[in-house]
TrEMBL record:
<dbReference type="Pfam" id="PF02467">
    <property type="entry name" value="Whib"/>
</dbReference>
<feature type="domain" description="4Fe-4S Wbl-type">
    <location>
        <begin position="72"/>
        <end position="129"/>
    </location>
</feature>
<feature type="compositionally biased region" description="Basic and acidic residues">
    <location>
        <begin position="1"/>
        <end position="28"/>
    </location>
</feature>
<feature type="region of interest" description="Disordered">
    <location>
        <begin position="1"/>
        <end position="49"/>
    </location>
</feature>
<protein>
    <recommendedName>
        <fullName>4Fe-4S Wbl-type domain-containing protein</fullName>
    </recommendedName>
</protein>
<dbReference type="InterPro" id="IPR034768">
    <property type="entry name" value="4FE4S_WBL"/>
</dbReference>
């Protein structure tokens, strides 16, 4: 049996086309166990499950900045109120948080990070006062 030659070379017989291989069933791949013994490794988890609350807040703040907006705590004129030692200034900052577009993310981040000062309209207090060590005299 002689092969016919086309412009690109010899053509295979019609019943033996190399790219027409079809498997009867798709191959099943068994997932590997993750670090805790479960079948889902961290690489297979949805991306939002890996992102921390702080990362989500940072992303939302960047999105606001891209739209030309910023929350009140980022305003140059009064951003110091959120970290002030004065209780009245922190109370003013907490009131200004109302209606903030990232309020929920800010609250989650503050809870995860254990933040001080004003976050999401809540005054978490200030830094504890450091006590100086004194020598005991006898």
């Amino acid at each position: 049996m002689a092969l016919e030659h086309g412009p690109e070379g010899p053509e295979p017989p019609e019943d033996r086309v190399p790219h027409a291989r079809v498997r009867a069933e798709p191959r099943r791949v068994r997932p590997r166990a993750g670090p805790r013994g479960d079948r889902r490794s961290p690489r297979r988890l949805p991306r939002r499950a890996i992102v921390s609350a702080r990362d989500a807040l940072d992303r939302a703040l960047l999105d606001l900045a891209a739209d030309g907006r910023r929350p009140r705590c980022a305003e140059p004129a009064d951003h110091a109120w959120w970290t002030s030692e004065d209780h009245d200034e922190r109370a003013r900052a907490a009131r200004l948080c109302r209606g903030c577009p990232v309020l929920r993310l800010c609250a989650e981040s503050a809870e995860d990070e254990g933040e001080l000062f004003v976050w999401a309209g809540v005054d978490h207090g200030t830094r504890p006062i450091k006590k100086t060590a004194t020598k005991e005299t006898r």
